[in-house]
Specification:
The protein is 64% helix and 3% strand. The protein is mostly helical. A two-stranded antiparallel sheet has the order 1-2. The protein is globular and about 65 Å long.
């Protein structure tokens, strides 16, 4: 419990440094994606279940400070409620507070070493820190725990990912994370097997469709990648990584205006034009790149220095080529499904 106490203490310090926003007779208005969500902000929840419910509402509303407070309140009332501590770690992981996230997951696994959610989250944390071997160990443990729920069929002689079974209760992000690791190792067939297992867990997951699209893109199967990206945005049109990856794919396919439109779903048109220009730049299509960089500058002349820098780079590359030199171009890379790798954008 020492780690939980430390988390509580650190949260108290953070709470003292951050405003919780205006209160209206004890009711706080929280805005998320244009919607107003109202809930009571009470200094002391009366039960763990109430605190869990309030934490979930706060998280969905985008108020991570309030969600953290309520999850920690659960642990004050019910220290063995590991679900709450996993959520504390998850929020810290999403915020980039890796040390606090690891502390939370380690506390859970010390008491419940086969907790699939904690194993999955610890794996994703290691993946985000590029500790791939540690990530794989944790994610495989989470999958092994999940597989204990199933009785192996004698007729099933398949091994590896192909021999796994899943249902709606399986930890989707564990299977998805193992797919990411396989993609990073250029083992696209294995990656897609894991993603299809994740798809069986939640057939309408935008995350999984993005993962499959990413894998197909990296494998050079662009038509399949486009199909998955289109399906993903039909499931959740607010999932930004999908639009970014779809825009990158369209730009690589030479469908530049469609690419700009895709990027515009998550950023301003000036930034979208710059991103398409950057893809053209790394492909060596300098004339097309210049066109899009100039368009970005015209749309935002005083507030978009990145486009100016990229335009200058185009001119520098031209000069080098005129002198008979050669310039190595980086490969444009998509936004990975669970961990962000190098993006096509240059900001």
């Amino acid at each position: 419990m020492k780690r939980i106490s430390l988390l509580l203490s650190m949260m108290a310090v953070l709470s003292g440094c951050q405003s919780t926003g205006p209160d209206l007779n004890g009711v706080r208005s929280v805005y998320s994606a244009g919607n107003s969500v109202l809930y009571q902000v009470q200094s002391q929840s009366s039960s763990p279940d109430q605190a869990m419910q309030m934490a979930a509402m706060a998280y969905q509303a985008g108020d991570l400070d309030q969600a953290l407070y309520q999850y920690l309140r659960v642990l004050e009332l019910a220290p063995e409620r590991y679900e709450a501590l996993v959520w504390v770690g998850r929020i810290h992981r999403e915020r980039g507070n890796n040390q606090l996230a690891e502390m939370a997951f380690t506390e859970v696994l010390g008491k419940a070493p086969e907790n699939p959610d904690a194993l999955t989250e610890m794996g994703l944390l290691n993946l985000s820190m590029r500790k791939h071997e540690q990530a794989k160990v944790m994610l495989l443990k989470a999958v092994a725990v999940d597989q204990k729920r199933f009785v192996k069929e004698p007729a099933n002689t398949q091994t590896g990912a192909a021999g796994l079974r899943v249902d709606s209760k399986s930890p989707l992000k564990a299977y998805n994370g193992l797919g990411v690791l396989a993609d990073l190792a250029d083992n696209f067939a294995e990656a897609q097997t894991y993603y299809r297992l994740a798809e069986l867990i939640d057939p309408r997951s935008a995350l999984v469709q993005n993962s499959l699209g990413y894998s197909y893109y990296m494998a050079g199967q662009w038509a399949d990648a486009e199909l998955r990206y289109k399906r993903g945005v039909s499931y959740d049109g607010t999932y930004k990584p999908l639009w970014r990856n779809y825009g990158l794919l369209l730009a690589r396919m030479g469908r530049y205006e469609e690419a700009v439109s895709a990027f515009e779903q998550v950023e301003k048109r000036a930034e979208a034009s710059n991103d398409v220009g950057y893809v053209c730049l790394v492909e060596g299509k300098l004339d097309v790149a210049e066109q899009f960089f100039r368009s970005a500058i015209e749309l935002s002349p005083g507030h978009y220095p990145v486009a100016w820098e990229n335009l200058n780079r185009v001119q520098q590359i031209r000069q080098i080529r005129q002198l008979g030199g050669d310039v190595a171009m980086p490969e444009p890379v998509a936004v990975g499904p669970a961990v962000q790798v190098t993006t096509a954008s240059a900001p």
